Amino acid sequence: MAEALADYEQLSALSPAVHDFVAGGSGAELTLRRNRSAFDAITVTPRILGGVESPDTTTTILGTAAALPVAVAPMAYQRLFHPAGELFLAEAAAKAGIPYIISTLSSVPLEKIAAIAPSWFQLYWLHDRGAVRALIDRATASGCSALMVTADVPVMGRRLRDVRNSFVLPTEVTAANLVDKYTEAHSALNGASAVAAHTAAAFDPTFSWSDLEWVRSVTEIPLLVKGILDPRDALAAIDAGADSVVVSNHGGRQFDGAPASIDALGSVIDAVGNDFPVLLDSGIRGGTDVLKALAIGADAVLVGRPLLWALAAGAAEEALTLLGRELRDAMLLAGCADLAAVADLVTGRS
Prior knowledge:
Elements: H1 8-11, H2 16-23, H3 30-41, E1 42-45, E2 59-61, E3 64-66, E4 70-72, H4 86-96, E5 100-102, H5 110-114, E6 119-123, H6 129-141, E7 147-150, H7 160-164, H8 194-202, H9 209-217, E8 223-228, H10 231-239, E9 244-247, H11 261-272, E10 278-281, H12 287-296, E11 300-303, H13 305-312, H14 316-333, H15 339-343, E12 346-349
Parallel strand pairs: 4-11, 5-6, 6-7, 7-8, 8-9, 9-10, 10-11
Antiparallel strand pairs: 1-12, 2-3
């Protein structure tokens, strides 16, 4: 039984190679570590005597009602961690009342996931624009209520743990949404990552703002752009038709040397204004982290790795219940009756 959301890593009992696939970052993992050190350095000044008994954590995220200001981050190949994979975590998200974001690289077809949880769809830009259009149409037809374009993966970052492990997917775990499953992911390569070989075959590194404008033109559901760190890119995303941006460094798995997402959050909000929805991804490990992100100005956060650890431990529902408890405890201790009060807290750096 976990006492904190961060405990699930120790309870996950994965093979060393699969553990490294989740835990690792790119390069020397500087950005991976920076995500946590930046959160640890943030201080929040609590308020007192607010008469708060039961904080209200409910909100609406891009038109989706949510019991917590949280969405399950898009994460690939979840059948690596549990036989039911995405279905198990999506069911937990549905019970928790939060959006589940389906990855292009999910190991269960998106239609099956969307049937059991309020879902958004995360899109990678593929070489085949027809395949991109087909994914968008499938997501919309399945009832996905938002489209999240991940823009920071022209190529996969060099993830040295996977290289050293010659990481390869088992044959039963595939990119279930792709017509051509790109067999590179299952071909062992000594001293190389088969998953990186797969993304190199599938992804188009020339993805540009004009392509994003095309995406906007073919769907009417809310459009989010994930992978924003520079305020200029946030403004460009708005110009291209985005309804929201996600401040993210991909969990430290792409450009090693990028700032912590939480450190980039404030300048992005200053650029786009308080009325434009901004989400935060990367580094969230518990309810106090959620509160810190909201106090700086995020409208909601994406939670990733801790839920994969919980998935592997067979405890996805328990983990989301625990995250809600952690957030409510943090709000009580900070004197906040609701999320508007959290946004009014004063933050600093230690």
